[in-house]
Amino acid sequence: MTTAAPTLPLSAKKPEKDSYKGKVHPDWCPGCGDFSVLAALQKALIELELQPHQVMTISGIGCSSNLPGFINTYGMHTLHGRSLAVASGAALGNHELKIIVTGGDGDGFGIGGNHFMHTMRRNLDLTYLVMDNQIYGLTTGQTSPTSPVGMKTKSTPHGNVENPINPIPLALVGGATYIARGYSGKQKHLVELIKGAIMHKGFSFVDIFSPCVTYNKDNTYKWFAPRVKMLEDENHDTTDFYGSMEKGYKWGDEIPIGLFWKNDKLASLDQLEPVLEEGGPLAYRKLGVSKEQSDKLIAELM
Amino acid sequence: MTTAAPTLPLSAKKPEKDSYKGKVHPDWCPGCGDFSVLAALQKALIELELQPHQVMTISGIGCSSNLPGFINTYGMHTLHGRSLAVASGAALGNHELKIIVTGGDGDGFGIGGNHFMHTMRRNLDLTYLVMDNQIYGLTTGQTSPTSPVGMKTKSTPHGNVENPINPIPLALVGGATYIARGYSGKQKHLVELIKGAIMHKGFSFVDIFSPCVTYNKDNTYKWFAPRVKMLEDENHDTTDFYGSMEKGYKWGDEIPIGLFWKNDKLASLDQLEPVLEEGGPLAYRKLGVSKEQSDKLIAELM
Amino acid sequence: MRTVDFAIGIGGAAGQGIATPGNILAHIFARRGLHLNAYNAYQSLIRGGHTFLTIRASDGPVHSMGDRIDLLIPLNQDTMDRHLRLLGPGACVLFDEGSIELGDVAEGVQVSPLPMKELSKGKKLAANTVSIAAALQMLGVEFQAIEDALTRIFARKGEEVVAQNVEIARNGYDYAAEHFGPFHFVVPKGDKHLAVWTGNEATAMGGIAAGVNFYAAYPMSPSTGVLMYMASHARDLGIMVRQVEDEIGVMNMIIGAAHTGCRAMTATSGGGLALMTEALGMSGMIETPIVCVDVQRGGPATGLPTKTEQGDLWQMLGAGQGDYPKIIVAPTDQLDLFTTMPELFNLTDKYQCPGLVLSDLLIGEGTASVDPADINFQTEIDRGEMIFPNGDCDNPYGGYNDSTYLRYKNTPSGISPRAVPGVPGHIYVASTDEHDEDSTLISDVDTNPKIRVMMVEKRARKMLAVLDDLEAPKLEGAENAEVTLVSWGSTRGVILEAIEQLAEEGITANQLNIKWIVPFHADVVTELLAQCKKVIITEINYSGQFARYLRSETGFTADGFIRKYDGEPFMPHHITQAVKDQLAGKETLSVPVHEISV
Amino acid sequence: MRTVDFAIGIGGAAGQGIATPGNILAHIFARRGLHLNAYNAYQSLIRGGHTFLTIRASDGPVHSMGDRIDLLIPLNQDTMDRHLRLLGPGACVLFDEGSIELGDVAEGVQVSPLPMKELSKGKKLAANTVSIAAALQMLGVEFQAIEDALTRIFARKGEEVVAQNVEIARNGYDYAAEHFGPFHFVVPKGDKHLAVWTGNEATAMGGIAAGVNFYAAYPMSPSTGVLMYMASHARDLGIMVRQVEDEIGVMNMIIGAAHTGCRAMTATSGGGLALMTEALGMSGMIETPIVCVDVQRGGPATGLPTKTEQGDLWQMLGAGQGDYPKIIVAPTDQLDLFTTMPELFNLTDKYQCPGLVLSDLLIGEGTASVDPADINFQTEIDRGEMIFPNGDCDNPYGGYNDSTYLRYKNTPSGISPRAVPGVPGHIYVASTDEHDEDSTLISDVDTNPKIRVMMVEKRARKMLAVLDDLEAPKLEGAENAEVTLVSWGSTRGVILEAIEQLAEEGITANQLNIKWIVPFHADVVTELLAQCKKVIITEINYSGQFARYLRSETGFTADGFIRKYDGEPFMPHHITQAVKDQLAGKETLSVPVHEISV
Ligand SMILES: Cc1ncc(C[n+]2csc(CCOP(=O)(O)OP(=O)(O)O)c2C)c(N)n1
Ligand SMILES: Cc1ncc(C[n+]2csc(CCOP(=O)(O)OP(=O)(O)O)c2C)c(N)n1
Ligand code: SF4
Ligand code: SF4
Ligand SMILES: [Mg+2]
Ligand SMILES: [Mg+2]
Question: Which of D151, B52, C429, C5 is nearest to A86 (CA)?
Answer without folding.
Answer: C429
